[in-house]
């Protein structure tokens, strides 16, 4: 599991506005923590393009590298940790340009230098 890889994940349901259910998600946790933590940091994706209206999002179009089947919105503002057992299947990976966009959006949301 590496930063920028896209997996099908099972996101537990909640009573709030968080994404839930089986969906693609981007792994954003550094690989050196894979064997040291029982969880993994992910950014869920949604096919509801209206989610682009929220800050902390951007659109990913399907290509041969990410293997998505439809345009998807990365919900960076919903960064979360899930149990690694919820990772089901590797789908593909983000391009370097889109991974840089993930990092930039995270920096903005977290007010990192």
Please characterize this protein's 3D structure.
By secondary structure, this protein is mainly β. The protein has one domain (5-110): SH3 type barrels. It has one helix and seven strands; from the N terminus they run βββββββα. It has one helix spanning 96-110; strands at 5-11, 21-27, 39-46, 57-60, 72-75, 80-83, 87-93. Strands 1, 2, 3, 4, 5, 6 and 7 form a seven-stranded antiparallel beta sheet that branches. The longest helix is centred in the C-terminal third of the chain and has 15 residues, at 96-110. The chain is globular.
Largest sheet: 7 strands, antiparallel
Query: Share of helix among residues?
Result: 10-25%
Low-confidence stretches: none
Radius of gyration of CA atoms, rounded to a whole number: 13 Å
Mean pLDDT, all residues: 93
Total individual domains: 1
Shape: globular
Number of strands: 7
* SS field, number of helical segments: 1
The structural class is mainly beta
Main CATH class? Mainly Beta
Give the CA-CA distance, first to last residue: 26 Å
* SSE sequence, one letter per element: EEEEEEEH
CATH fold-level name? SH3 type barrels
CATH architecture: Roll
Question: What portion of residues belong to β-strands?
Answer: 35-45%
Oligomer: single chain
């Amino acid at each position: 599991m590496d930063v920028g890889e896209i997996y099908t994940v099972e996101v537990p349901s909640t009573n709030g506005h968080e994404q839930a259910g089986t969906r693609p998600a981007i792994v954003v946790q550094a690989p050196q923590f894979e064997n040291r933590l029982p969880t993994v940091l992910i950014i869920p994706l949604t096919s509801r393009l209206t989610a682009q209206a929220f800050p902390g999002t951007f659109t990913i179009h399907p290509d041969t590298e990410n293997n998505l089947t439809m345009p998807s919105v990365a919900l960076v503002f919903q960064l979360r940790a899930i149990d690694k057992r919820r990772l089901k299947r590797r789908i593909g990976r983000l391009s370097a340009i889109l991974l840089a966009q993930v990092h930039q959006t995270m920096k903005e949301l977290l007010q990192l230098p």
